[in-house]
């Protein structure tokens, strides 16, 4: 029953370009050849920010062509936004705003004994971390740099609160690092 931030990032720490493109990411590897199938099989609830959700809305046709559905998640999803956003047919989405702790309680109840996936972006994952709710970071580092873009995790988290537990090479395009977050020792936490 963990809360996990599972994401891909560029080598220089960006999730997406400044204009929310992920085109740099797809040539680097395939989800089906990654840890994703096993990871998602243990997820009971998802959280994402509005830019991440709007990428799904904008790319619904591509997602449908690849997965058979414009919304590939069976699990309930909490989308954080202060705005009114369009819905996607067949998606179990709740739009929420504000304190992640309240939402996390709802997600925990829905997920039961499965994990919670914080999809991104980086600041939303940071909000869960700030509240002491993030248990693991699972980061697939792509062999590409972007120079600027949407940050992986805009927080200052100092040693020793992150504990590296595994390193896995995925061909020449990716390396996956898994960290546990030692919440009790997360002393050097701050926004940047
Ligand atoms: N590389 C990867 O594997 C990967 C993974 C995840 C995401 N991505 C991409 O990375 C980019 C992330 O974008 P982003 O950094 O802008 O992050 P984001 O979390 O997707 O969106 C940020 C927005 O979410 C809303 N929000 C966040 N916290 C909130 C809260 N507590 N209450 C209410 N609203 C809240 C705010 O917008 P509003 O209130 O204005 O709606 C905020 O500006 C996207 O392009 C996404 O597609 C890539």
TrEMBL record:
It comes from the Bacteria. Gene3D superfamilies: Dihydrofolate Reductase, subunit A (3.40.430.10). It holds the Pfam family RibD_C. SUPFAM superfamilies: Dihydrofolate reductase-like (SSF53597). Residues 7-174 form the Bacterial bifunctional deaminase-reductase C-terminal domain. InterPro entries: DHFR-like_dom_sf (IPR024072), RibDG_C (IPR002734), Riboflavin_Biosynth_HTPR (IPR050765). This is Dihydrofolate reductase. It comes from Rhodoferax ferrireducens.
């Amino acid at each position: 029953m963990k809360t996990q931030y599972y994401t891909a990032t560029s080598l220089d720490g960006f999730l997406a370009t400044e204009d929310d493109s992920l085109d740099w990411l797809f040539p680097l590897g395939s989800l089906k050849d990654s840890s994703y199938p096993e990871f998602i099989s243990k997820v009971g609830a998802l959280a994402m920010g509005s830019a991440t959700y709007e990428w799904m809305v904008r790319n619904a046709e591509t997602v449908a062509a690849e997965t058979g559905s414009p919304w590939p998640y069976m699990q309930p999803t909490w989308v954080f936004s202060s705005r009114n956003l369009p819905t996607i047919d067949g998606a179990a989405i709740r739009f929420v705003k504000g304190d992640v702790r309240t939402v996390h309680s709802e997600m925990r109840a829905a997920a039961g004994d499965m994990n919670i996936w914080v999809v991104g972006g980086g600041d939303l994952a940071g909000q869960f971390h700030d509240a002491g709710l993030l248990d693991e970071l699972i980061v697939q580092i792509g062999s590409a740099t972007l120079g600027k873009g949407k940050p992986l995790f805009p927080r200052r988290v100092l040693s020793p609160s992150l504990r590296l537990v595994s390193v896995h090479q995925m061909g020449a395009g990716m390396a996956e690092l898994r960290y546990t977050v030692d919440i009790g020792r997360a002393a050097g936490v701050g926004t940047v």
